[in-house]
Design goal:
This protein is mainly β. Helices cover 0% and strands 55% of the residues. The chain is globular, with a radius of gyration of 19 Å. The model is unreliable at 1-5 (pLDDT under 50).
């Protein structure tokens, strides 16, 4: 933040957006919050079905491609502001990780966590200090299934993150949050979820608690990892249930004790307040596009990307709660993920 004669101003910030389209697969977006406008630049870089991104403090950007033979790519960019500034510096095969659908950077352990939806495996990649791949991926395979014969025919890992209890892995296919030893990667006792939940994404709330989006059950779940029990379950939308709505991302606002969930199908954003062991519904507003896939909180706005129409929107917040007011919109065909980028050095 800087100060001018008119008072404090909020600096512009950059984001990377990947798209499930052949070209362009990667975009750099600049968000100007003071004037509520976007600048969008496509990058002349070839990536195969990029589905998720993660940024490193050094400036490296990691992309996981939703391909049968999994791989993760490290990109960097030059000092210029041109459209073609992203370059693939390294690519690492992930043998045994089919359809990688998330990549998380864990700063404490200096590694990437990459779940594979296809066969439910997890890839763990150690990094060097500059963000480069330090070794081949370690891969952990799982077993299990759930009541949905089509979507839960086996394990389908969809998210992974470092928790105080260990590495957490959401398994949409087995209705569990798996917990792994952070060193040996051995499985510990899992957090079991209601049958048919289909957990997709997870947010760490601190204090041994998490919030999860239930893609198959169209729910938001509050759970204690420490106690290995579900505390509360809230319908993710009031506009349809069952197979008509599939929640995607869940994000946490720790200052206000809120969680926001993107609803594909209802095309809305649900906001709930964490009240002790309960989830209290606060609001549900249109997401500003068709099939919201990923959300990012930034200052006075909630950013949302939509895969069906490519809308990348900034929704105004009021007391931390999204309104139906779209402050600005740009289009990225096939947009699937938006990742905050560190300031350029």
């Amino acid at each position: 933040m800087s100060t001018t004669a008119g008072g404090p101003t909020v600096a512009s910030s950059e984001f990377a957006v990947c798209a499930m389209s052949e070209r362009p697969a990667l975009w750099t977006l600049v968000w100007h919050p003071e004037t509520e406008r976007w600048e969008a630049r496509d990058a002349a870089v070839a990536l195969d079905r990029p589905f998720a991104l993660a940024a490193h403090p050094s400036g490296s950007l990691y992309a996981a491609g939703l391909t049968p033979e999994g791989a993760v790519h490290r990109l960097t960019r030059g000092p210029g502001d041109g459209a073609a500034d992203w370059v693939v510096r390294q690519s690492l095969a992930l043998p045994g990780v089919e359809l990688p659908c998330r990549v998380r950077f864990d700063a404490a352990s200096r590694r990437l966590l990459i779940p594979g939806y296809g066969n439910g495996a997890l890839g763990v990649v150690d990094l060097d200090r500059d963000g480069g791949f330090a070794a081949a991926a370690r891969v952990v395979a799982f077993t299990g299934g759930g009541p949905d014969p089509e979507r839960q025919d086996g394990p389908h890992a969809h998210d992974a993150l470092a928790l105080a209890a260990g590495i957490g892995v959401t398994d949409l296919g087995a209705d569990v949050l798996r917990i792994l030893d952070p060193t040996t990667l051995a499985e510990r006792a899992p957090l079991e979820l209601p049958a048919g939940t289909g957990p997709r994404h997870v947010a760490d709330l601190g204090g041994g608690r998490v919030a999860l989006s239930g893609e198959l059950g169209s729910t938001l779940v509050l759970a204690s990892v420490t106690e290995r029990r579900v505390l509360d379950v809230l319908p993710a939308t009031a506009h349809g249930s069952g197979g008509s709505n599939a929640p995607s991302t869940v994000v946490h606002d720790p200052v206000r004790g809120l969680v926001h969930v993107a609803n594909r199908g209802a095309d809305t954003i649900l906001t709930a307040r964490i009240d002790g062991d309960r989830l209290v519904r606060v609001s549900e507003v249109p997401g500003g596009g068709s099939r919201p896939e990923h959300l990012v909180l930034t200052g006075r706005h909630l950013l949302a990307v939509h895969s069906a129409d490519g809308a990348v929107v900034a929704l105004r917040l009021r007391d931390g709660v999204p309104t139906a007011e779209v402050a600005a919109e740009t289009r990225v065909p096939g947009a699937i993920w938006i990742e905050p980028l560190p300031p350029r050095s």
